[in-house]
Amino acid sequence: MKISIGITIGIVVIVALAVILAGNYSSDEINQNKIRVAFFPNIGHAVPIVGLENGIFENGIGQQIQIETKLFDSGPQVIESMFAGSIDIAYVGPGPVINGFLKSDGNDIKILAGAASGGASFIVKSDSELDSIENFDGKRIASPQISNSQDVSLRHYLASNGLKPIEKGGTVFVLNISNPDIYTLFAKGDIDGAWVSEPWATMLVQELDGVRLFNEEKLWPNEQFASVLLIARTNYIENNPEIIHNWIKSHEEAVLWINSNPDKSKSMFSDFLLGYMGKSLPPEIIDESFSNLTITDDPIKNSVFTFAERADSLGYLGRSGYNLDGIFYNVDLKADLELTQLNG
């Protein structure tokens, strides 16, 4: 199955229409023979990209089930689309997943598996002097949309070093802008650094002479943290257990295939970019980007809980505390598709 590029057009319109229609119809009733999956055109999302490109998911869930793919550039957009009922499953970072789970009082979103660990870096201009924390005052540092995973990590890094963003009475300018805009501003010299995922991090290094100050995993225990998770709407899981069962099996198969066939996986990712953007990335960027992450189905649960603690310390999770009980679904593939909720 080749991923259709037509899905990228009109995402905002799709979401708006879904909000209107959700009040009149159950999307699960309308889409009983369809699964709508969201992901990003990033290397960290290699599992859905490669798994769809080489037919693993299509073969795994059966020809009778239509796979509809939708591409996004930020996790919060994905979560809002899930709330609107226009997305059934998605690949997204832990920050938006946690926010979405809590926003729905733990009712609408569940984590089914991991998809990637690592793959984010702090890239700085060569003349920024950001190699020393004493030089951060007045600097302009970018990350994607506010409350997304890189934003949480950047702001936590600043706080752990005694720094605050300007809006909190501090001295560091934190800009939340899209990855393409980060690239443009970095090229112009309008920002001093950026906390971004692959392949954007490597693009800033190889194409714009940025310096990789560090890979984010260096800040984590065992150098592992969940950077991409497979999630699903709770209603869709409950109403379509066989589809979900088969998707998870295919997801695990795709993880194994990618790790066993790194060169073919890189080639498939390149083909995907060519179809999606009309051009691909140089092989050396794809090679280095893949080397900076680990494709895994392990959700690395402790890191998800740590993300929540950090987001809460930043004021992203409200003022009344938070509870992540039930955020992980216990998927038992050997028990007749039985999906039982994990407490705690």
Automatic annotation (TrEMBL):
CDD domains: PBP2_NrtA_CpmA_like. The keyword Transit peptide does not apply. Keywords: Cell inner membrane, Cell membrane, Membrane, Signal, Transport. It is found in: Endomembrane system; Periplasm. InterPro entries: ABC_SsuA_sub-bd (IPR010067), NrtA/CpmA_ABC-bd_dom (IPR044527). GO terms for cellular component: endomembrane system; membrane; periplasmic space. Its main location: membrane. The keyword Cell inner membrane applies. One of its GO terms (molecular function) is ATPase-coupled transmembrane transporter activity. Belongs to the bacterial solute-binding protein SsuA/TauA family. This is Solute-binding protein family 3/N-terminal domain-containing protein. The lineage of its organism: unclassified sequences, metagenomes, ecological metagenomes.
